[in-house]
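User: Could you check the structure of this?
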Amino acid sequence: MHGSNLIKAIRQRDASSEIRCWGGDKMEAAGATLVKHISELAFMGFVEVLMNLRTIFRNLDFCKKDILAFKPDVLVLIDYPGFNLRIAKWAKAQNIKVVYYIAPQVWAWKENRVKKMKQFIDQMLVILPFEKDYFKSKWNWDVTYVGHPLIEEIERKKAAESNDFSIVDKSGNQVNKPFIALLPGSRKQEILKKLPVMLQVSKYFPDYHFVVAQAPAIDDSFYQQYTIHYPNVSMVKNQTYNLLLQSRAALVTSGTATLETALFGVPEVVCYKGSSISYQIAKRVIKVKYISLVNLIMDKEIVKELIQEEMNVKNLTEELRHLLNIPENAEKLKKEYHRLYELLSAGGHASEKAAEIITVLV
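Assistant: Sure, the predicted C-alpha cells are below.
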C-alpha cells in the first residue's frame, strides 16, 4: 500500500519515470513493473527465517542482478530491514543512490545496525514522530520525518465512505447484526497461531457477527478450514477498511493493523502469538515496552495487549466485553485515538514528501 502511494506520487511529479519493483498487486496497479511478489518474500520469526535461509539468499542474489540490469537512478527501499539493509550495503558499493522509506525499527532491537545504515543510506525517511529525535540525539544522524503514510490513505477512505458494505452469512442471507472485525495478520504462519483462538471468541457473542479480514495473497480455502465451524463468522478480501468503518470493535494482530484500526476509531484488543522458541528469543533481544504501534507512539498503554499465553479465549472474551459493554471505556479510547491522529498527521502527506525528496535525487 505504501509503495503504491509512493509510486503514484512520483508519477505525479514525473510522468515519464520508469519504476521497477518488488512488492504487491497495488504497486503493479500503480504502474510499476512487478519483478517479484511479496507473497514469496514474507518470513516472520527467528526460527522461520532460519528454515528459509536458502530461499532468502537466492532472492538476494536475484535482486542484485536485476538491479544491475535495470541501472536505476535511485533505489528506494521500503521497510523489510533483514533483506533491504543487505541490498543497501551492496547498492552503495555499486554507486547507486539509496533512499530508505519507513525506517527499520532499530529503537526496538539491533541498534548497532545504525552505524552501518549511516554509511549505506543517502536519505532516511521516517514515519514515526519520535524517530527523528531518536536518530539525531542518539546517533547524530539527520533523518527526515515525512509523516505517516496511513494518514493520507485513511483520509481518502473516510472521504469516500459509502454505506453499501454488507456481509452475507453462510446461508447467503444479509447479516443485520453489528460487526466485530478479526484481523489475524498477513502471513500464514501468524494466522495459524491466532485465528483459531479469535474464532472461538465468537461463540460468546451471539448478538454480533464476526468478520475475518483476509490477506490478499492467501487463498479462501486456507481460512475456510477454520471458519466453517462457526455460524456467525464471515470473511472479506480487499475490504479491510470498509470492514473497519462498520465495526464496533476488533481483535487485531500486532503490527500496522493496530494503527489502522485506531485511526478508524475502532476499539481494539491487540493480539500476538508466535512459536514458543521465537517468542523466547524475542523477549530477550527486543527492548520496547509495548508491541502495538498505538502504544509505542503514545508511550503508554492505550489499547490492551494480549501476548503469547495471555492471548487465550478467556482473556480475549473479557477484554472484548469491556469494550462493547462499558461505554466509558470506548469513549476514553477514542479520545486517545484523536491525540494519536494529531501526532501522526503533523508531518504532512508522507507519499508526496517522500516523492519530492526521491525525484530531486534523480
